[in-house]
Amino acid sequence: MKGTPEKEDVEYWRWQEYHRIFSEKKWKNKDVITAGVDVGSVGSKAAILIDGEVYSWGVMRTGSNSPDSAKKALDWAMEGTGLRVNDFKYIVGTGYGRVNVPMANKAITEIACHAKGANYIWGPSVRTVLDVGGQDIKAIHCDETGRVTSFLMNDKCAAGTGRGMEVFADLLKIPIEKIGEVSLNVEEEPPPVSCTCVAFAKTEAMGLLRKGWSKEKVLAAYTHAMAIRMGNLVKRVGLEKEFVITGGQSKNIGIVSRIETALGVKCLPMPDWRDNGLDPMIAGAIGAALFGKALYEKAQKS
Amino acid sequence: MITVGIDLGTQTVKAVVLKDGAVVSRGKAFSGFDLTKSAQQAVDEALKEAKLSLSDVNHVTATGSGMEMAPNANSTISMMGADAQAGVFLFLKARTIIDVGAEEARAVKCDDNGIMMDFVVNERCAAGAGAFIEAMARALEVKLEDMGPLSLKAERASPINASCVIFGESDVVTLIHRQESKPEIARAIFDAMADRISSMVHRLGVNPDVVLVGGVAKDVGFVASLKRKLSIDVLIPKYPEYAGALGAALVAVRRAKKV
Amino acid sequence: MVIITHYGYSDGSGEYYIVIDADKCIGCAKCIVQCPQSALELIDMLIDLEDKTVAAVTEQQRKNIKYACSPCKPENGKAPCVLACEQKAVWCIWNPR
User: Fold this and answer.
1) Cβ B161–C63 below 8 Å, yes or no?
2) B92-236 topology per CATH
């Protein structure tokens, strides 16, 4: 397991594995120390909270074995803290493989954890969260405590997901990390492609290229269509400010700016973990650990 | 009475020449970039085989998603209408026609005169039609025509995200790495398609006889899965992909008589 | 308070959801009994730190909703699951393009 990466991971929305400790914090045995472990299909994240405040976290690739990934992610978050597994008062597992976090006291849906985590990271003003991952899109509406009021999850159709964008980037031979800026490199915003289906949109794109459209224009038209689609998913759960976009596609400025245009709302800025900010990628793990604290305290009262 | 029916599909254009109530010839061409030109090619091929020329033809009717691009067409008919006509012509008791093409699939309910009464369409999603099988065959590195026979070797279907061509492609790659067998993956693909098509048909109500047409009807793997899902026998004509063109040619006869 | 889950999807052909409000749902299972496709089941959902038993669409059918539900013609507003629910906790969003 890497301590710090040897070179900058240049893959665009493929992210670096890393871990972080807020070393100004110190833990004592009497503190309510909880952990959240979020095992996703691509990444496994763990966050450790002291009395409901983020202390350390770790982010790494999910391996072929979910329970193993859960343990490794938690070990990663614990590294350098001096903590052992039995120091945790409560551990919550979540994510795609939430049922496979063997050390968890409870498993909670990733939606609930993501909303709670977003509420922690951005504050109680957040009401709408659009999470665009590699293989799914989630639209969540929550209240001021981060409690989910309405949501949907799309993993049926690739349109708009990271995977769908990759297919299009491959077709146009544009490097993944550049598709955001390339799509904005047009004088006038072209109309969206008529097919949201990625497979059919590919054919439509080839026709447009043959008609003399530039790669930038074709990419802009496709990104435009994807942004409209994602905007509609957000509207379906109810758009309300403040609005945040999380997940791999949040780094695609072509998509983000067009979603903002489609919805008429600007999203809140993303904190940068390199800048000592909380990485939105660990929102689920943070939320899980917060649930852990609440459940522990509830058990103590009864 | 000589009529020509042209079916301008997204992948191929098919033409049928009907003379005095019998099919005398067929023609086919890839749709390509110039649909009108390809349609002309298909018609020329069919006329040549029938030893006829366009001047011998009483009426030309076009159908298919590209029907507006047909050369020399006197009229057009919806794909549903064409399917209904062809179904009853091919099988007297046909009352439910299922047409699975490259990009679109539909089910049509008709009466004993081959007049369409109700229909349901699967469109705008590649997973709903032949494009799905093609893409999965590519991901499996199997020739399209081998997919069917391959799937018949399997006794079970692999777990696979069969709701999307793009996700399905990645799933296939993952399954191959995990050493899942190709026949079982192929079977899963056909089962998923058959499931979708069968649900589509159930929306109309399954009225026997059930006829299956369209390019995908030639695939033994799909047919086997569909028969299993529908739990009813399915009749398939000898040249299922020409059903649309045949239907158009039959409509052309009615239209020619009206003039 | 509402806790609304949209089970289903939107793709190139339209949007199709069976929507269940876990706040209104009392877990009576009447909708589950009425569904001709066995597409509904009871699950435990964590609400306000308590596990509540509510109706949900099964995992296998979530990506297949358009096909599973189509025979019930949800666009007419008379799908059996919707009619069965006395709490008005179930409804359908059916918008083919």
Assistant:
1) yes
2) Nucleotidyltransferase; domain 5 (3.30.420)
